[in-house]
Inverse folding.
């Protein structure tokens, strides 16, 4: 038996680090760190939608609790799983922010916005069921994700997430609003603390440097008045998300079509995230893993509306946390899922996480999300950019994928249909589709000799022997 840095015990060569069960204390601390990294992403969509629908604070709070509860269920499905459901990887699943725009569009189509939620929930249930049925076929797209494509997509995931961290530093409000001196100071202090802790600490404490940095940043924020304790003061201790609290689901064709398009976008992003995480943890995601992961995503989505939740997808920000901490155990993320369920059942405890100031989250987010982008660059370096037109494929895909990152209003005046906007407004999906198409055009459709085409093709497309999976960009200890 051996004890690794993460605190797990295993027989040498018998258990992959993804399947290790860590000691209880380290399991809980690691899970809490994932909660801190993803909490803001889980609660943001219900907060935005609740405000747009004009819901009173109590009902918006209920939506937030439901989002946490259903995110926990979806995360447990993904990490623990059953039958052919769940990738069994350290994946956090939560409410997809890509669904906010389609849900607002559905609300705008109603005579009274306050009646929109049952229509949204009905459409989400149908979209989740459709995605579950399509998962065994959708997973076969993995053959179109050689290192050239997957490296581009992983880089885009990081680049797409970085503006989220910048928005947190600005206070989480209008992206055009400049950051305050207090916000910049808190973000800088948190970033420096995380870097110093990663440099000087060893063992378990080094692995929870992000969590320690968030705690330290919050303590620094208290004397400058940047911590709001009001949510914790008025939150109830116990609150269960009553099934169909906003009424029985309603099924209308326009809303269903809109949510089905969203589901396909979420499945594309989840596929890319699974490929990225597979590289990070040293267990490349194959078709079987992706099919299981997509079933967990879509089943969680189909069930969420029962408890007043929305469409779920994999959270890319947690990939950065896995890469930095090098704790690859899926049971750590399962502990995060269990905590989300408990937070959904106890608004008072959920509000304690909410007191962490957004600028503090932003300072840590720079490290988390930058690590994802750097991991993608590492994969691209091994993808043969010096061969054929691979550099051109990566360049064009990164350029198109960063359009919505740089300007959210880029397509506003072009008359682009709303369903297409759902795809184009997702930098990961737009860049992913571009990379797949260009890789096929330049490396597969008879425009290069076999020896030139092989570096840019996946095992399923290459005319020669199947290449070995690219090495993990970030290795565990």
């Amino acid at each position: 038996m051996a004890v690794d840095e993460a605190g797990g015990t295993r027989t040498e060569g018998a258990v992959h680090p993804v399947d290790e069960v860590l000691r209880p204390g380290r399991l809980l601390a690691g899970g809490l760190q994932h909660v801190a990294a993803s909490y803001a992403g889980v609660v943001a969509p219900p907060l935005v939608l609740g405000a747009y629908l004009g819901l009173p604070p109590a009902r918006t709070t209920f939506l937030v609790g439901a989002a946490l509860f259903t995110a926990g269920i979806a995360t447990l499905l993904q990490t623990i799983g059953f039958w052919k459901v769940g990738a069994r990887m350290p994946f956090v699943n939560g409410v997809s922010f890509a669904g906010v725009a389609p849900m607002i569009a559905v609300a705008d189509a109603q005579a009274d916005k306050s009646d929109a939620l049952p229509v949204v929930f009905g459409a989400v249930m149908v979209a989740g069921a459709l995605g579950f049925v399509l998962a065994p076929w959708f997973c076969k797209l993995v053959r179109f994700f050689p290192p050239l494509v997957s490296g581009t997509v992983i880089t885009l995931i990081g680049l797409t997430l970085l503006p989220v961290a910048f928005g947190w530093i600005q206070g989480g409000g209008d992206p055009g609003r400049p950051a305050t001196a207090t916000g910049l100071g808190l973000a800088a202090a948190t970033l420096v603390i995380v870097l110093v802790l990663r440099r000087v600490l060893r063992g378990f404490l080094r692995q929870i440097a992000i969590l320690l940095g968030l705690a330290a940043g919050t303590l620094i924020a208290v004397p400058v008045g940047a911590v709001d304790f009001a949510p914790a003061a008025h939150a109830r201790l116990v609150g269960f998300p009553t099934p169909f609290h906003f009424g029985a689901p309603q099924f209308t064709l326009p809303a269903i079509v809109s949510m089905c398009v969203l589901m396909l976008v979420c499945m594309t992003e989840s596929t890319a995230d699974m490929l990225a995480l597979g590289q990070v943890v040293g267990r490349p995601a194959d078709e079987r893993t992706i099919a299981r992961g997509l079933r967990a995503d879509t089943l969680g989505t189909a069930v969420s509306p029962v408890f007043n939740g929305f469409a779920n997808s994999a959270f890319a920000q947690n990939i950065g946390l896995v890469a930095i901490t090098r704790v690859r155990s899926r049971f750590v993320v399962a502990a995060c899922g269990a905590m989300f369920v408990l937070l959904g059942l106890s608004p008072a405890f959920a509000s304690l996480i909410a007191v962490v100031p957004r600028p503090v989250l932003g300072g840590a987010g720079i490290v988390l999300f930058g690590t994802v982008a750097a991991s993608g660059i590492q994969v691209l370096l091994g993808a043969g950019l010096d061969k054929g037109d691979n550099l051109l494929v990566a360049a064009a895909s990164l350029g198109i994928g960063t359009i919505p990152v740089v300007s959210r209003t880029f397509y506003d005046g072009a008359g682009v249909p709303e369903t297409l906007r759902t795809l184009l407004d997702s930098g990961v999906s737009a860049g992913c589709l571009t990379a797949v198409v260009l890789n096929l055009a330049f490396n597969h459709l008879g425009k290069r000799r076999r020896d030139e085409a092989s570096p840019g093709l996946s095992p399923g497309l290459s005319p020669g022997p199947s290449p070995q999976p690219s090495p993990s960009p970030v290795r565990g200890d």
Remarks:
- The CA atoms of residues 183 and 359 lie 5 Å apart.
